[in-house]
Amino acid sequence: MAQNVSMEEFEALLNESFEIDTPAEGSVVKGKIIAIEAGQAIIDVGYKMEGRVELKEFANPGEAPEVAVGDDVEVFLERVENARGEAVVSRDKARREEAWDRLEKAYADEQRVEGAIFGRVKGGFTVDLGGAVAFLPGSQVDVRPVRDAGPLMGLKQPFQILKMDRRRGNIVVSRRAILEESRAEQRAEVIGKLAEGDAVDGVVKNITEYGAFVDLGGVDGLLHVTDMAWRRVNHPSEILSIGETVKVQVIKINKETHRISLGMKQLQDDPWNTVEGKYPLESVHTGRVTNITDYGAFVELEPGVEGLVHVSEMSWTKKNVHPGKIVSTSQEVEVMVLEIDTSKRRVSLGLKQTMRNPWDVFADNNPVGTEVEGEVKNITEFGLFIGLDNDIDGMVHLSDLSWDQRGEEAIQNYRKGDVVKAVVTEVDVDKERISLSVKQLGGDPFSEAVEGVKRGSIITVEVTAIEEGGIEVDYEGMKSFIRRSDLSRDRAEQRPDRFGVGDKVDVRVTNVDGKTRRLGLSIKAREIAEEKEAVEQYGSSDSGASLGDILGAALKGDE
């Protein structure tokens, strides 16, 4: 009977053992550490199964493992039995499964998760989220680019899950989202305490081309380069350095975007308030060239007060020259105040007005009739330009080149660079024009030759050429032409061939033209005048005397 009971109990126990299912592979099971040896923990997972796990699987990144015999742990059962008859288990995989469950819930609830950056990979970093490994892109590390992530490695801190895919094992997290949220809260708190017009202290955090970012105690404000000083600031680094504490004024606060505009110059006196009193019109001052453009140069009269010297006011003589060839940056120059517009904060300055007008100087030193000398600077279709003192030019018109030659012919005798002498004939200071004459250097031969000669005068000329239409004659070096019709009163005697070259002939002056430099001469007019005179002296047409008698009497009277 006892034997039968024992068999029944054994059968019941055996059936009971069959009823208890062996844990399925690929699941998380509970176990107990029963021994630690050779860097491994031996874990009893029940069901007459033991497995081994490396101690490093119990450690968080950057930390030493904290395990002891008797600790209850959860492990992932990969296989029930290996070749040595041991269960194949993993603490990492168990932690990963546990972590994924926890992270999926946090992701669904949009909650933060805690993790530690433990490695660097291409494009970012790896983060341990308590067993699950996530990817932290480089752009999501901080609100600004991080050059050295060393201080962040191994540090437990909150992250925001941006994306996760359990099937692929991908998790993407962000540290920047946490910082921005914290900054937004802190920003709102700080901005709530600020008001436009407040003067506050801040620390320069960053400097850019257009300004500087100033930390006001948890919130940044932009200090634009134009609000740093009343004077021109080419780059913020001229007056600011990173880490420097500065006093600034809150100019504007945008409650929606939480942007703050700051200013430094607003805490200083505006120099434009005293400009009109300190710089009266036509007063001369010394300034420093701060900037040069195509249209002129900016000159600083004092910090915060700049004026523009327009290119047209830079030089009396250099008209089409870039301002950079007249002045240079940082050069000290004397300027005259020409105009002030305080509403537009503009001062118009003149550079040339501080120097005497060179045309005035020339007019004083070289009155009309003065002989000057200069180099031929340019040759044009209408004359020569001669370089004179103080970089000014005078012009010799074609008509003033020669008495004898046409201007187009005379100008062929000159070349650029030739040094010539000329006489000043006119100086127009307003039009900046100087007229010169080369032909008047030796005086006017025509005026000298015809001095005392007037219309009606009888002069003696010498025949120099015989032509079909008349004869060419010379009087004191001046050429003139007597037409055939003026050769005699008698039509039969109006023959040029009755004269010979070298003959002396008395002629009557019919015209003296100073402009064309011509004498109008006529033998016929002389004969008519003589006849008229003879008639008046020795008879009349009513006396009955013949013309031959009268002329005969006149000739005898002359004898």
List the helices and strands and how they pair.
Layout: H1 2-19, E1 27-37, E2 40-46, E3 49-54, E4 72-79, E5 88-90, H2 91-108, E6 113-121, E7 124-128, E8 133-137, E9 156-165, E10 170-174, H3 176-193, E11 199-207, E12 211-215, E13 220-224, E14 245-254, E15 259-263, H4 275-278, E16 284-293, E17 296-302, E18 305-310, E19 332-341, E20 346-350, H5 358-365, E21 371-380, E22 383-387, E23 393-397, H6 407-410, E24 419-428, E25 433-437, H7 445-449, E26 458-467, E27 470-475, E28 478-483, E29 504-513, E30 518-522, H8 523-538, H9 547-558
Parallel strand pairs: 13-15, 18-20, 23-25
Antiparallel strand pairs: 1-2, 1-4, 2-3, 4-5, 6-7, 6-9, 7-8, 9-10, 11-12, 11-14, 12-13, 14-15, 16-17, 16-19, 17-18, 19-20, 21-22, 21-24, 22-23, 24-25, 26-27, 26-29, 27-28, 29-30
Helix pairs in contact: 8-9
